[in-house]
Amino acid sequence: MASLVYHSGALGDFVTALPAFEVWKREHPDEPLVLMGKPAHGALVPHLFDDAWDAGSSRYARLFSADCPGGEARLLLPGVTSALVFAREASPLCAVLSRSRLDELVRQDPFPAADVHVVDYHLQLFGNRVNDGDRTPRIRVAPAATGDSPGAGGPAPAFVAIHHGSGSARKNWPRDRFEALASRLHGRGYRAAWISGPADDDAPPRCEAQRWDRLPLPDLAARLAACRLFVGNDSGVAHLAAAVGCPTVALFGVSSDRVWAPRGRRVRVLRASTGRVQDITLEEALSVVLDFLGESR
To answer: How far is it, in rounded angstroms, from Cα 127 to Cα 118?
Structure first.
């Protein structure tokens, strides 16, 4: 027997669903847990998933075809007896899984329709079986090298990580302000790490910074866990930073921070009252960052 979790969303959506995955695993203790989604996401939580299947692979294409019979679905999902599915009700996958006669099938729309934090929305699936400790995404990491070796008798320097991108240009604070922020921090003796992912502009930053370009997610997670601070937009990397325990400053404009703010040990949201993240000034961001770093202006 095995239990399937279907989740093919972006990085931030995956991180905010982690608490629901954890509760589902707790309630299916004797069943190996298989992720059908993005294997790169599953690599972040090897303690949680026993295997990861690529939902975009042609091998599973028939599962997303409305005419796929239940018998064929069972052949494509060997040993699967239960499934937690994050998909719209109209998704062909839901109809196919219903025909495959699983012992248990639980489905939820991927995104909340109400003004509720997305983590709490996912946990509504489990009613009163949720503990307070379940409400924060957590990712365990092993120490990772940052490219700097420690000096004689001392540790390698900690970084302030900066991510200038997101899944939407409307959510992005201007790149030149991130560069100016890095320069101001460099003037105070801090090292900056400039993060670029697959969807980001990867042009070299016009500031003093170590570049972390397109790192494998487990490597990026480990580096973030060692950082003094993370600063970025409303993005999956911000959720990743908070989940590994890195103090996080997230800049919000058009998105609702009530729904999408990262959750973690220390998270501060700097929200533009106008709804335009571009209206957050450099001085406002610097003030919040220095406060997190324990410095005065």
So the answer is: 15
C-beta of residue 250 within 8 angstroms of C-beta of residue 232: yes
Per-residue pLDDT of 127-163, as tens digits, reads 999 999 999 999 999 876 555 544 444 445 689 999 9
User: What amino acid occupies position 284?
Assistant: E
Confidence of residue 295 (pLDDT cuts 50, 70, 90): confident
In CATH terms, 2-135 corresponds, of 1.10.3720.10, 3.40.50.920, 3.30.1380.10, 3.40.50.2000, to: 3.40.50.2000
Report whether 178 contacts 193 (CB < 8 A): no
Contact by Cβ (8 Å): 216, 210: no
Q: Where are the beta strands (DSSP E) in the chain?
A: 2-7, 33-37, 51-54, 80-86, 104-108, 159-163, 191-196, 210-213, 229-233, 248-252, 267-271
- What's the pTM value of the predicted model, to 2 decimals? 0.94
Q: Give me the residue spans of the domains in the chain.
A: 2-135, 159-292
Nearest Cα to Cα of residue 89 among 67, 105, 77: 105
Check: CB of residue 78 under 8 Å from CB of residue 68. Answer: no
Nearest to 54 by CA among 32, 44, 39, 76: 39
Query: Among all chains, which residue has been given the structure tokens 């975009």?
Result: 56
Instruction: Give the pLDDT confidence of 229-241 residue by residue, as tens digits.
Output: 999 999 999 999 9
